[in-house]
Amino acid sequence: QWGRANVAGLKRMARxxxxxxxxxxxxxxxxxxxxxxxxxxxGGSGAG
Length: 48
Known about the structure:
With 48 residues, this protein is an all-alpha fold. It has one helix at residues 16-26. It is flat and about 35 Å long. The relative contact order is 0.26.
């Protein structure tokens, strides 16, 4: 098992399809107003 799985807010590592969904959403032409942002898909481990 992954060592960080118990650290993340969701208590598990992301599935590949979840990261793919995130990447597709960020590349979407519908996000025309979002520029210069740094977004992290970390399952909540960076919160708090």
